[in-house]
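Q: What does the assembled structure look like for these inputs?
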Amino acid sequence: DAGVIQSPRHEVTEMGQEVTLRCKPISGHDYLFWYRQTMMRGLELLIYFNNNVPIDDSGMPEDRFSAKMPNASFSTLKIQPSEPRDSAVYFCASSHIRGDEQYFGPGTRLTVT
Amino acid sequence: DQQVKQNSPSLSVQEGRISILNCDYTNSMFDYFLWYKKYPAEGPTFLISISSIKDKNEDGRFTVFLNKSAKHLSLHIVPSQPGDSAVYFCAASAHSGYALNFGKGTSLLVTP
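A:
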């Protein structure tokens, strides 16, 4: 099992540019989560999906952030336009059963200059 | 508003001794608690969990204790090993929802 796969691992972009982060969950997992980690706020849940449907997006900071899950094996988190304060590590995680432990990907380190 | 708090940013312990990591929470609706371990440049990995119907759960060298009245949980590692050096996150969720609320983490250093 390859685990949760995220790409790219590192992204450096200029303010105002569009950024797309990608995630492939573990096969068979029904839940997919996007988190953001910063020094100030720690690990925050941005949004999660169940069976490809967004369930709770209350953690998405602004309209500049959007997430999609077009199928069970792929999800994207898009930031448009990006700002320096979006610099953080973004994690994707998946789980099989609600309440079960979540499996995290290695994260994408985003730097917006 | 941080509902899960890990008040010690760092902890240093000698190899072979006990490591105790603490976590406090404010939301009385939380009924499921987890500990994750994170190495640099990797995602968090699940370590151990406990449901609110229990006050202790043990898995090898790792034991989690839950004190519901104090809204406090702790992770004990005995004996500590250098490979345990990592950041440990406490997380909690409520029955009515699923969002995992994480603490900011405690960096554990186990010295030989």
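The longest strand of chain B covers residues 30-38.
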